[in-house]
Queue: 2 jobs
Job 1
Amino acid sequence: MNKFYITTPIFYVNDKPHIGHAFTLVLADVTARYHRSLGEETFLLTGTDEHGAKIARAAERQGEEPQQFTDRVSATFSELAKILNVSNNEFIRTTDQEIHWPGVFKIWEAIKASGDIYESEYEGLYCVGHEAFMKKSDLQDGVCPDHQTKPEKIKEKNYFFKLSKYKKRIKEAYVSGAIMVKPASRANEVLAMLEDSEDVSFSRPRKDLEWGIAVPGDDAQTIYVWADALTNYLSAMGYGRNEDWQKWWPADTHVIGKDILRFHGIIWPAMLLSAGLELPKSLLVHGFITVENQKMSKTIGNVIDPVELVKKYGVDPVRYYLLREIPSTEDGDFSYKKLEDRYNGDLANNLGNLVSRVAKLIETKLEGELNFDGKFFDKEVRQKIEEAEQKYRRAVEEFRLHEALTHIWDLFGFANAHIDSHKPWEADQEGSHLLRTITSIVAIIVSGSRWLEPFLPETVEKISNTFGNNLRAYDVLRLAGQKFIVTKIEPLFPRLK
Ligand code: ME8
């Protein structure tokens, strides 16, 4: 059996999650569920990044001990994954000394053994928001454009990682496609960033930053938070503790936002090459969500809490909105109006109506039971399904999840129109007209449900219950003899209050 190992970034716990984190989680979840639906042994990893100056200061502002603070905020992220019905197999925390730390020690030692760690006196401008040193040219009027804060001038002795040694091999990995980047434009971005990449500071003096993992063999230094964090992709799978990671590594995909491309596209591959480990096979890079066309910020007060959204609209409408309205690889905008339009239009009117119309027809015209007979399955409809499936699969594999949904909804739209034009309720002598229409539409619902399961698992379960059948397990070409028994009809998407 093929394996498929997919990760999300591990999120900083300086604050509770917002809709951007929900977006990443849902994109990764659909991809993971899709690979499970292909029969691949799939592992989805997510978790939290809990060390570093940013977190230590957030804890201090709250008047809490860092461990107590990170325990509390990390729980809001694992809770979010549950609320969003994300099928992660593990939730890793970088403060977990048993699971995570041994992997960090091991990779540090491996990099050191390659001669790639050296001591240096360093002077630079550190942005705590990025947890990274910035170049003067990255700043606007001396301020970090992403965080609107002035970076701190730091002069200290620390350890450096010889990233420059691996630039050529990293470049080759992108050029040859050994690491695939989707969308392809982001590969060009990595290559451009690679050109002016230099060795990176890999530790901070412990006296200035206590909240982190001490460098093995030098208690006076704390490991750089990104070196610590990136290693989660290995440590979670056993690296440093056992040999299980060998089964899963290399990762098939790291799903990331565009803001952390440099870390995943350059620093991580360099660390892996230095440690003698294989490179991940692909990076799926998504864009950023704005709210009513503005950057989300606490000061503006427009931060959208995904938990509140799910409470109000339900989990699948929120998943659907994020997956359909925000193009997977582009920036997108959130608004309540657009969410409600999608809810009323695509979900309630299109899919919801389709399912209830067909269920009612089976209930009233066929005494609640359809025995699927291939001879009533319209050829034209069958061809439409096959075409839609090809388009759907191509879109998912290209990480254009919003397009995949468009193809499914085009088919649902076609099904509704097919019912309107064929008027199956109008009697004919042998009753075959009715059976022909219902059979074809049921085939569409079965196919659509199967494709939809990675996106809207709860909805597919509800559709399955409506027809007394586990629809996602069916192959549309092998439906002969299956029974569809309608016992109860409940609206999939109740009217919004
Ligand atoms: O960078 N729109 O953590 P982080 C879409 N701990 N996605 C968004 C978003 C937005 N407005 N805001 C955040 C870190 N994200 C590090 C990662 S990995 C080894 C360490 C998502 O909490 C997006 O996926 O700042 C982005 O890459 C990630 O959250 C950054 O999360």
Note: The first strand starts at residue 3 and ends at 12.
Job 2
Amino acid sequence: MTSAIMPTYARQNIGFESGEGAWLTATDGGRYLDAVSGISVCNLGHAHPAVHQAISRQSQKLLHTSNLYQIPLQEALAAKLASLAGMEMVFFGNSGAEANEAAIKLSRKWGADNGMTAPLIVTMTGGFHGRTMATLTATGNAKIKVGFAPLLPGFIHVPYNDIDALQQVLAAHEQVAAVMLEPVLGEGGVVVPDAGYLAAVRGLCDAHHCLMVVDEIQTGLCRTGRWFAYQHEQIIPDVVTLAKSLGNGVPIGACMAQARVSGVLQPGQHGSTFGGNPLAASAALAVLQTLQAENMPARVERLGQAMLAGLEARLAAQPLVRDIRGKGLMLGIELTMPCAGLVADARREHLLINVTAMNVIRLLPPFIITDEEAQMIVDIVSRVIERLAEAAP
Ligand code: PLP
């Protein structure tokens, strides 16, 4: 089939026309259990009534004005997010990359305000922060940068989960404005750092007077069994970015900041036409209300533990499986060989999964899956891995 869409994605040969809860219906009528959630976007499942009602009501009243004016729904959303995250103020954009762009600009401006002439941002090897020029530069994956030189100056990468390496870089450079990292690597292969790592990074940032920027775009809003993954370690970063699940499919991103840095970007220094418009804000408010009403962190933690235990019971002795890991409903099964083909195998069994970092099956089911659906995911994933093992040389 010829397509008028630029070939930036290697798309699978399937499309969907409707969804309900954890299930998607394809254009040919087939039903698929969704363990991807649009890469941790539709975390309340598809066609959630609270989101549907909020955006349908709002679309009858007002879609958009401009950030030239007061937007009461955006104010309410910012206040709620800030209080959940332990932050003071929020800037809204439309995507993860934009949320991170705001965080990068804020960090550089904070550095400049504090006398830095060439502020540096330290990020992690294996980390992912987006596809714009600044977020691509921040991303610690050389492959996706090929062809886009010259990249931005002012970024240094250190190995993830290596506190000594970070300490050395901070000691060697005087003008570090920020350390920016994911609390669990998502695209990098569901890499969960050692317990205490995030708290140690917080300590180093304090000791070296630089900001700690946590990218919660994939992990935020209950995915790991806490509202924010940094809350597993009782720390508060200076800046936190969000996007993906905030609108359950309605595009919205957020860059949140603690009191001491929330006034760094002043009128004229950053902006977004659409960011936090009434439609997106109404969706995000409905998402937060639903997560709260259903005590979602506890539900995600329980379901995640059950799935992890189920996967371990079935696969721990499987020689093809190198590691089974995760936090909450962000689960990774690392194989000893590349396994992108398992996506099609699982799809043949009417399950949608994702493979990242070549050999890691990534499971990001919606939080509303039932115990039975969680078990179905475990069964099918185990089955396709066992079949691969039988066929492997
Ligand atoms: N940061 C993280 C941790 C992500 O996982 C992603 C997307 O996968 C992004 C940033 C970029 O978000 P977006 O694709 O909305 O620009």
Note: The two ends are 34 Å apart (CA to CA).
